[in-house]
Amino acid sequence: MPASHPPRIDEAMDKQPHGQESAGKAWPDVCCSPARTPLAIVAAIAENGVIGDGRGLPWHLPSDLKHFRGITMGKPLLMGRKTFESIGCALPGRETIVVTRDRAFDSSRGGGHSKAIHVAHELEAALALAQDLARAMGAEEVILAGGGNLYESLIGYAERMHLTFVDVAARGTVSFPEIDWSNWLEVNRVRPRPSARDDATFAFVDFDRRHCLSL
Ligand SMILES: NC(=O)c1ccc[n+]([C@@H]2O[C@H](COP(=O)([O-])OP(=O)(O)OC[C@H]3O[C@@H](n4cnc5c(N)ncnc54)[C@H](OP(=O)(O)O)[C@@H]3O)[C@@H](O)[C@H]2O)c1
User: Fold this and answer.
1) Whose CA is nearest to atom 12 of ligand 1?
2) pTM for the whole structure
3) CA distance 47 to 80
4) Is 52 in the pocket of ligand 1 (CB under 6 A)?
5) How many C-beta neighbours within 10 Å does residue 122 have?
6) How many A from CA of 168 to the centre of ligand 1?
7) 72, part of any domain
8) Domain ranges, residue 52
9) 167 in a domain, yes or no?
10) pLDDT digit string (tens) for 26-73?
């Protein structure tokens, strides 16, 4: 069952089953180490958990794109090959790591900013490269930019989430993974006034992983 917008945190503590977030490996081994740049998920999620239709986003939200730009600027971005192709190019001011099993993947597909595209064929290699890039860039976070497949595989490694809750029940085939909300502490919530060009209302909500707070 995909995630949907969270219940209030006190409700979540009572009702959500524990330990359902998936990860290829146990995250505490790598999470919260002072030597490691935190991994932060950035995602926009509909009320029904949908994040995409497999080719792109199911909404037009220029305000969220601007927010995404602000959060991600100057940082390494980790993304799946399908998300990279839906964006269509490397994003200026950031270093993009595309994860693909395709050994023939052509990173010059990124057009004018292809020097800022890196390719990794395994998740561990992608995470290690992201750490190196973050150190070189002086970035305070590594960004996990999607899509559904990458969120599902790596959510267990994330210490932060910058989520946009979009007030629509969107049609789409790709969803955000199951979340155990009791693992996450809401640290900031803003409900901006949407612009005339935004399809829907939305809230920007930041979460920190609770286990990281006690270290
Ligand atoms: N709402 C949001 O915030 C948001 C954010 C990002 C994306 N999206 C949407 O999400 C959708 C795309 O998500 P998706 O789940 O279909 O695809 P995805 O996660 O973007 O990419 C999946 C691809 O990543 C590669 N990959 C995954 N795991 C791998 C591993 N362990 N090792 C090597 N390569 C691996 C594979 O590429 P190969 O097939 O090339 O091997 C796989 O097909 C789009 O609709 C996009 O618009 C939404």
Assistant:
1) 147
2) 0.89
3) 23
4) yes
5) 10
6) 22
7) yes
8) 37-213
9) yes
10) 444 445 666 799 999 999 999 999 999 999 999 999 999 999 999 999
